Amino acid sequence: MLGKIRQLPESLRITLVGVCALSAVLLVEIRPWRSSTDVQIEEQLQTTANKVEAPEIPPEPLVDPDMETTLRADTAESIKEIDPQLEVLMTQKRYGELTNRLLNMAASVLEAKQPNQLVEILSLLGQVSIEQQNLDAAEVYLFEALDLLKDSPNEGARAEIYMQLGRAHLRSREIARNAGYAYDALLVGRNQLMRGRYRVAELNILKAIEHNLSINRYNAAASAYSSLALLKERTGNRYEAEQSRLESARLYASSGQLSSANRQISLLRASGIEEWRLLGIESEIDTNYRDYKESIEQIALAKDYRRLYHHYLSKNNHARAWHFRLLASESLEKVSKRAMFHRQQGVLALLYNSNEAMALAKDYFTEASRSFLDNGMVELEQQTRALNSQVY
Q: Which pTM was predicted?
């Protein structure tokens, strides 16, 4: 047979060998027929999987911690100048109590008709709100300070307010980027978990938990804890699996997601946990959810007080207006952070909206930098320029 093939012309020999080779492949591996759509879907899934796998651990967002430390120290120093006792509240991060004390001081200063000191206190309230990641409140305080400076020749004070407004929008952008990173890390971690790559999967899931908690995204952190529990179950670590499920249930209940919390309890029951332990866990979850409901009532009360504040402010009755503003602040002090941040935008919406925050941050920093330069405030101008370089 081979001798006869060698006698054929070269071009025909190549064609015949190719056909024979193809026949051999078809005989060895006969696959079911697939439409072009099936092939396309399979290729898309494979491409997605490849994208998820690379890199194994997503790069974290770039944030300059030294700059934040410097700005936090500057805020603490300014608070110390007003009242040395308040510096302790700042360093201990007792922001709710600090906000109330500053608001009471603002009310007293308003009554004494000292607008310059009121501007300083409102600016500090804005900075404390930025530290709390309560960026809407920060904007309110800072714009109020700008309104008081409307007819003032103090360009330096106005520039400092612009810098703080830029910081608020920069923080908004950082929160969005951290949320996006946490989302990616959890997605990659879950993919690796399904593939049995437990060590690197755990690293990504833990990173997702860390970043979500740092920006008060408690529901997302609860979901990540649930994935961590599954990983621990698959690797035979029953105790850590139970602890992860329990933390997931706690976070869900404290954020008002009772059905999701109960789902975690059901999974704990299915895992064979002792009934007496389960009773204690269910009691804790009920308590967390009850605390959440009480916090929501306090938030509603604070909103009513704010409406009264704006009503009396429109009537030019500042004393009465600030009375209700203080009551609103006292109500919010009783609210847990998990309830305060229970409703948040999805990651894609957060990232999309942060584009506007980025543009606003650049505008505010540019305006502040120009004013600092015009007034010979070189150190603040350099600080503002450094902040502007972080907008991404």
A: 0.73
